[in-house]
C-alpha cells in the first residue's frame, strides 16, 4: 500500500511515534511518505528519512513556566498559510496514497476526506476545548467553535487511533471525551515507541540513577536548575541531565559530582532503560516511552497546559510515578524521587506496563489494522 503520514509539528512526540509507525510499515514493504514541518521535519530527516514540507497548523508559545494561550492563538494566526489547503491537496494528488494517517494534523485529514481517501487519525486528546475553559469571552467562543470542528472531523474519520494502553491503563484517558456513537471507531493501539525494550542495550549508569529529559532552556529552565539543586541534597543518588544543545553548562556554576550533563543525546532509549526513574514534562509520548521501558515517571507538566496536567494526574493516581510542579521545592522533589526509588509498588506497576507494551506492540497493531481495513479496498 501507499501510505501518507501527516505529522503535527508542535512537540516532537507526534514525530517520534510516527517514526515508529513508519519504520514498521517500511519493514513490511509498504511505500510511505511523511508530511511534516519545522523541527518535526528536521528530526525525520536526521533519522534518515525524507519528508515533504507541509504548512504549519498551530503554534504553541509559552512563558514563565506555562502555556500562553492568547499568544499561541496570535502566533497561529500570524503563521497561517492561506494556500495551505491547495498545497496539501496537490501533495495527495501527486502521491496518490491508498490511505492517509494523520497524527493530530487536521488540515491533512480534511484534504484526504475531500478526495474521499480513507483517513486514520492518531490523537491522544479529543477535548481540545479544555484549553479555552475559564478564559476571556472571545477565547471561550473559540473553544466552542473548536469543539464543533473536531466533533465533525471525528465523525468523518474512518478510525481514531489512541496510541496508549487500553483501559483501564490508559494514561491519556482524562483527555478523551467521545460521543457514544464514536466509540466503535476507537482503536487503542498500545504505545507507539520507536524501539523495543529487548533491542536496546543498557549503559553503565551508577545506581541509583535518575535521568532528566527536561531541557535547560526556555520556560523549563527553572525545573532544570531545581533538579541540579536537588542533586546536592543527597550525593547517594546519581543523575544524568539531558539539557539540549542550546544550554551552556559553564553558566550553571559548579556541577555536583553525582551529576552528568549531556547537551545532546541522539538516542535517549539506553538512558531510559538504564535508569531507575525518569524526570519529564507531561507530554504523552515521553511518558509512554518511560512506561514502555518499565521506569517510573516524575512529571512536571507545563502550567496551564491541561493535556499535560491530565496525563501527569493519571501517572500519580495509578502509581506510575509522581506529579510535581514548577513551585515544588528541591527538598520535596528529593522525597518524591526517594519514594519511587524505594517503594516496590511503583516498580511492580511500571514493569507490568513494560510487559503489556511488548505484548500490544503498537506499531505492529496499527500496521495490521491498516492492512486489514484499507488493504481490502486496495485489493
Short structural description:
Helices cover 43% and strands 15% of the residues. The protein is an alpha/beta fold and 379 residues long.
Q: Which properties best describe this structure?
A:
43% helix, alpha/beta, 2 domains, 379 residues, six-stranded parallel sheet, globular, single chain, 13 helices, seven-stranded parallel sheet, 15 strands
CATH names the topology of the largest domain as Rossmann fold
Question: What about the largest sheet?
Answer: 7 strands, parallel
CATH architecture of the largest domain: 3-Layer(aba) Sandwich
Query: What is the multimeric organization of the chains shown?
Result: single chain
Taken as a percent bin, the fraction of beta residues is 15-25%
Structural class by SSE content: alpha/beta
Unreliable stretches (pLDDT < 50, length at least 5) are 64-77, 139-143
Q: Report the total helices.
A: 13
Shape: globular
Tell me the count of domains: 2
Q: How many beta-strand segments?
A: 15
Distance between the termini: 10 Å
> How are helices and strands ordered from N to C?
EHEHEEEHHEHEHEEEHEEHEHEHEHHH
- Order of strands in the sheet with most strands: 3-2-1-6-7-8-9
The CATH superfamily name of the largest domain is: Glycogen Phosphorylase B
Give the proportion of residues in helices.
Answer: 40-55%
Radius of gyration: 21 Å
Amino acid at each position: 500500500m501507499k501510505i501518507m503520514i501527516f505529522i503535527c509539528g508542535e512537540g516532537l512526540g507526534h514525530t517520534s511515534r510516527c517514526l515508529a509507525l513508519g519504520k514498521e510499515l517500511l519493514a513490511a514493504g509498504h511505500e510511505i511518505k511523511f508530511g511534516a514541518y519545522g523541527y518535526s521535519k528536521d528530526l525525520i530527516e536526521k533519522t534518515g528519512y525524507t519528508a515533504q514540507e507541509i504548512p504549519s497548523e498551530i503554534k504553541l508559545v509559552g512563558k514563565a513556566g506555562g502555556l500562553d494561550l492568547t499568544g499561541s492563538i496570535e502566533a497561529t494566526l500570524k503563521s497561517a498559510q492561506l494556500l495551505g489547503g491547495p498545497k496539501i491537496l496537490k501533495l495527495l494528488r501527486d502521491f496518490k496514497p491508498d490511505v492517509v494517517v494523520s497524527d493530530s494534523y487536521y488540515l491533512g485529514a480534511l484534504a484526504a476526506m475531500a478526495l474521499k481517501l480513507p483517513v486514520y487519525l492518531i490523537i491522544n486528546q479529543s477535548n481540545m476545548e479544555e484549553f479555552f475553559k475559564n478564559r476571556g469571552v472571545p477565547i471561550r467562543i473559540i473553544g466552542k467553535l473548536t469543539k464543533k470542528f473536531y466533533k465533525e472531523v471525528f465523525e468523518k474519520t474512518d478510525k481514531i487511533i489512541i496510541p496508549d494502553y487500553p483501559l483501564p491503563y490508559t494514561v491519556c484517558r482524562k483527555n478523551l471525551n467521545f460521543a457514544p456513537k464514536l466509540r466503535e471507531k476507537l482503536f487503542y493501539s498500545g504505545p507507539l515507541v520507536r524501539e523495543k525494550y529487548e533491542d536496546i542495550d543498557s549503559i553503565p549508569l551508577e545506581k541509583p540513577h535518575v535521568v532528566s529529559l527536561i531541557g535547560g532552556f526556555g520556560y523549563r529552565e527553572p525545573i532544570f536548575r531545581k533538579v541540579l539543586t536537588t542533586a546536592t541534597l543527597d550525593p547517594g543518588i546519581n543523575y544524568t541531565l539531558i539539557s539540549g544543545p542550546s544550554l551552556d553548562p559553564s553558566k550553571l556554576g559548579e556541577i555536583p559530582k553525582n551529576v552528568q550533563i549531556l547537551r545532546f543525546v541522539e538516542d535517549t532509549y539506553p538512558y531510559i532503560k538504564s535508569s531507575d526513574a525518569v524526570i519529564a514534562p507531561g507530554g504523552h509520548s515521553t511518558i509512554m516511552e518511560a512506561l514502555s521501558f518499565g521506569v517510573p515517571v516524575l512529571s512536571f507538566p507545563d502550567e496551564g497546559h491541561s493535556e499535560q496536567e491530565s496525563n501527569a494526574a493519571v501517572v500519580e493516581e495509578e502509581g506510575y510515578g509522581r506529579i510535581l510542579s514548577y513551585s515544588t521545592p528541591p527538598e520535596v522533589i528529593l522525597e518524591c524521587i526517594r519514594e519511587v526509588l524505594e517503594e516496590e509498588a511503583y516498580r511492580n506497576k511500571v514493569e507490568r506496563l513494560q510487559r503489556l507494551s511488548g505484548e500490544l506492540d503498537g506499531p505492529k497493531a496499527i500496521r495490521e489494522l491498516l492492512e486489514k481495513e484499507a488493504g481490502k479496498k486496495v485489493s
